[in-house]
């Protein structure tokens, strides 16, 4: 089975057990994510992005106008062009007419009535890729320094000797750089894959410019050494390049990173909260102008802060939040950074679990039309969880109790005060944040245990910070459980236990053990135990990269529909990024999707829509018919007139041709009114 290739469901195979688990990995993780996976050729790294110029074409035997290149598993040339009257490649934009088909359901008496619907969208994507800067809060941390080092190593095309041979810089683990999408079938009926990054013009990671803040004044070379993530040979080569990079002073409020980080804190922005906010804004402007950037994106990758309550009148609205800062009341450093970025018109992404993006910050982002995304990078363990639970529940297996209280203890059902006892100690019922329906006996469990020795691990051992982490890790299976009323009654929830221990010796090499127990038919039991060891930062860094590249791309996409011809961008809470976040932030009222495969499809299909390609449906009907009858190619007839006002209001600041972020980032940003 090759990368990106899913085994077929047919034949005599029983779709259960080990094979299914392996298949899940191959389907959902980019090739190369797993050690030992087939090496992927590095496509166009650092080279100018495809311009979308059609390649020479010639007709095949059966009239397929696909280029008769010898198609390998994956195209070495990532260039492609969609030949359709619905797609127009202009000098500045790619414009695609797109039929969005879905269905709405209404409950009428005892019957669910389903009405298929169709909406016509016009997607417009600006082709000009900007010069992009990334500012990391916690730049000198393991994740920040590793990401910076990785981009540099790729840009310089470094290779270094290790005890198992020479290694070369690559971007394994990045969805956009090392993941692929299937474009369709070639003349032989085989799927043609291209790198994700070639779907639409995207910033090349090698071209990113980094800057950032840190409460520790170590330069990036020293930070890299402290992190102990990279091989020595690579560190030596990177040292002279990283030495010159020194983090800007950051905001340190001891009560938020309750674990005492004061040993590190020697590089601080002093003054009142309002002065600190101003300094952060000045830093962003300074970076933008001194590095000659078109856009800046800010990413929080610093310490996990403690969880805070949202207080009405203080951080519930944009106005109140700005006033709270001006008055110098309690506000977390991460919220301060978020507010500063939003005011500067820069997207803000929260890579830690705390609730940085309070309602006031979300409202501010909405008002300023700036993207925000969060919370907490979804790296190893949670990513596996969002695959495995989807796999178990999706195949009709009920995740069953082991940790916590077993069905036996409960004597078969109903409410019992003992349930509360279950929630104490290390084991906490899952979904602890949300008010729940009637409690049922715990008849399922997912138990996760970790130990790690990096700074994050050390400080997660403090209860208030651990609580933030626990909340973000625990709601991960929500949607999957709720999607299956056959297995789970309303309000029924599995035991979900998360333990994190600090073991300095293992450093950045995180150990994760998970146990999933599910119920087979007729009372059988199915237990899966997973052990994972990997360098935590090497998992997180490519996720940070994807977040930045996808956010920037979304800023260049705008669309209108046949019913609303006024161009608009994506909602300021960028839920398209859910694939990359443990506790995805979504616009109010929107369903949260945690299942990894659905999250990946969402990104893929929206990007496909932008170039007028239908959603990936995996039906492969071409190969399932008695008689070959599918006309795979031929003149496509444009049926509908263009519904959207073409070039509607190009002068409007937020027009289709503009930055969906609204603010032209080069403009002098507005100062807060308070
Ligand atoms: C198609 O074009 C390629 C070069 O562009 C050429 O090598 C090949 O022979 C052509 N095939 C046919 C069927 O004309
Ligand atoms: C943190 O520890 C240092 C000593 O290492 C001490 O001087 C400082 O007061 C402590 N700060 C807090 C906020 O506990
Ligand atoms: C909201 O503001 C109050 C008062 O400044 C503060 O105590 C609380 O921690 C804040 N909540 C969040 C989530 O930042
Ligand atoms: C890096 O990010 C990952 C994913 O969020 C996290 O688990 C890890 O603890 C972070 N590392 C540090 C040193 O903060
Ligand atoms: C570097 C640092 O301040 N580490 C702290 C992390 O949290 C633990 C537990 O609260 C503290 O003991 C450490 O000092």
Question: Could you please describe the fold and organization of this structure?
Answer:
- Key enzyme in myo-inositol biosynthesis pathway that catalyzes the conversion of glucose 6-phosphate to 1-myo-inositol 1-phosphate in a NAD-dependent manner. Rate-limiting enzyme in the synthesis of all inositol-containing compounds.
- This is Inositol-3-phosphate synthase 1.
- The protein has 674 residues and is of the alpha/beta class.
- The protein contains 17 helices and 18 strands.
- The chain has helices at residues 17-28, 142-155, 175-178, 220-227, 232-243, 273-290, 318-327, 333-343, 359-368, 380-394, 407-410, 418-422, 455-460, 463-474, 478-482, 536-555, 596-610; strands at residues 87-89, 93-108, 111-126, 132-137, 159-162, 165-168, 180-185, 191-195, 209-213, 295-300, 347-350, 372-373, 398-399, 445-452, 495-502, 509-519, 525-535, 557-561.
- The longest helix is centred in the last third of the chain and has 20 residues, at 536-555.
- The chain is globular, with a radius of gyration of 25 Å.
- It starts with 16 loop residues before the first helix and ends in a 64-residue tail after the last helix.
List keywords for this structure.
single chain; 674 residues; alpha/beta; Rossmann fold; Dihydrodipicolinate Reductase, domain 2; five-stranded parallel β-sheet; five-stranded mixed β-sheet; 17 helices; 18 strands; 27% helix; 18% strand; disordered N terminus; disordered C terminus; binds 2-acetamido-2-deoxy-beta-D-glucopyranose; NAD; lipid metabolism
Strand content: 15-25%
Distance between the termini: 60 Å
Assigned CATH architecture of the domain at 132-378 and 538-555 and 575-609: 3-Layer(aba) Sandwich
Low-confidence parts = 1-18, 21-77, 401-443, 634-674
Provide the spatial order of strands within the biggest beta sheet: 9-4-10-11-12
What is the assigned CATH homologous superfamily of the domain at 132-378 and 538-555 and 575-609?
Answer: NAD(P)-binding Rossmann-like Domain
Shape: globular
Number of helices: 17
Q: How many whole angstroms does the radius of gyration measure? A: 25 Å
User: Would you give the CATH topology of the domain at 132-378 and 538-555 and 575-609?
Assistant: Rossmann fold
The total of beta strands comes to 18
Largest sheet geometry: 5 strands, parallel
Are any ligands bound, and if so which?
2-acetamido-2-deoxy-beta-D-glucopyranose
Transmembrane segments: 20-40
Organism: Enhydra lutris kenyoni
Function: Key enzyme in myo-inositol biosynthesis pathway that catalyzes the conversion of glucose 6-phosphate to 1-myo-inositol 1-phosphate in a NAD-dependent manner. Rate-limiting enzyme in the synthesis of all inositol-containing compounds.
GO molecular function: inositol-3-phosphate synthase activity
